Every structure is written in structure tokens, then in C-alpha cells.
Amino acid sequence: MITQRLVAVTTVVGAIAGLSLAVQVRAGADRIAFPEDYAKGVMYLSVDKPSKQVHEFYAPAAALAAARKGDPMPDGTVITGVHYNAQLDGDGNPVKGPDGHFIKTTLRQYAVMQKKAGWGADYGDDVRNGDWEYRIFTAEKKPNDQVKTAVCFGCHKPEAAHDFVYSYDKLKAATQ
């Protein structure tokens, strides 16, 4: 009888732990689908990266308007970073165009951050970035689950005063 109760209790505890793990897995990048219409937004920033890449950032007009007012990004905001390799010279150094910036070549990947009300509730305060989630997509627009979004959360965490958006001030200054 005691053995049966122990087995039953162990089964219930295991089921609860499994359910808890399933809920925790739901909190994650799988919530974000590839934003097919990202380029209909505003390309508000292009950055030459030390990693010999060019990153271009797109956001919807509503995000620019919110930043200009000093407000958080609206619910549903999607910011998309399009990452390209830079053209390299014979010594492996990035080639610069007439504007002084790297010349972009092949598409590497897409980095997407999306904000939805309630998405942050599944995270502890040590990780939570408001209601933002992050996901990396390959050049073929497929999820790249090899990239762990914990890196994104850690990187953006210090930007809490700017709604976790590093380029918040660039959004303010962007023109449509």
C-alpha cells in the first residue's frame, strides 16, 4: 500500500514537473514567425560590424512614432535585423564603398525581436526583457534553433530604460 502511494505520488510529481517544463519551453522563440513584410517597414539603421558584417534594421512606422514620443514600443512591434557578409579584399579586410561603409554581399541571417503583451510573464526578473521574444532565422527564412536566444536576452537586458531596444535613439531620429 505504501509502495503504491509512493509510486502514485512520484507519478504526479513527475507529471507536474513535465508540465512545468512544457510551459517553460512554450516561453520562447517558437512564438515568432518569420516577418515576411519586414521590408514594408522603415530601414532606420545600417551598421558596419567588427565581425565583417553589415546589419540593417527595419521597424514599423508605429515604432518610430512611439520612440519620438519617448514611449515604449507598441504591442505587436517587430524589429528585424538583416545581416549580410561584407565584401572582403585580398587581405580579408572589408571593402568600403564611396560612402565609407562596408559593401554588403551575401545574406547571412535575420535577427528578429517581437513584442506581445504577456510574453514576458513566463520569465523570471533576471531574464525578462519586458514582453519581448527573440528568434534567429537563416538566409532561407527558416528558424535557426542552433542560436540560443538566451544571448539575446542577456545582451538586451541592460537596455530596460529604452524598452530593451539598443537602437531606440536611432528609431527616434529616423525618417519615414
List the helices and strands and how they pair.
Elements: H1 2-26, E1 42-49, E2 53-59, H2 61-69, E3 78-86, E4 104-115, E5 132-138, H3 150-156, H4 168-173
Antiparallel strand pairs: 1-2, 2-3, 3-4, 4-5
Main attributes of the structure:
alpha+beta, Chalcone isomerase, 5-stranded antiparallel beta sheet, 4 helices, 5 strands, globular
Detailed description of the structure:
- By secondary structure, the protein is of the alpha+beta class.
- The protein has a single domain (29-173), classed as Chalcone isomerase (3-Layer(bba) Sandwich).
- It is built from four helices and five strands; from the N terminus they run H-E-E-H-E-E-E-H-H.
- Strands 1-2-3-4-5 form a five-stranded antiparallel beta sheet.
- Strand 1 (42-49) and strand 2 (53-59) form a beta hairpin.
- Mean pLDDT is 88; it is low at 6-26.
In CATH terms, what is the architecture?
3-Layer(bba) Sandwich
- How is the quaternary structure best described? single chain
User: How many extended strands?
Assistant: 5
Task: Kindly report the average pLDDT value.
Answer: 88
State the order of secondary-structure elements, H for helix, E for strand: HEEHEEEHH
Rg, nearest Å: 21 Å
According to CATH, what is the class? Answer: Alpha Beta
Any idea what the CATH superfamily is called? Cytochrome P460
In short:
This protein has 176 residues and is an alpha+beta fold. It contains four helices and five strands; from the N terminus they run αββαβββαα. The chain is globular and about 50 Å long.
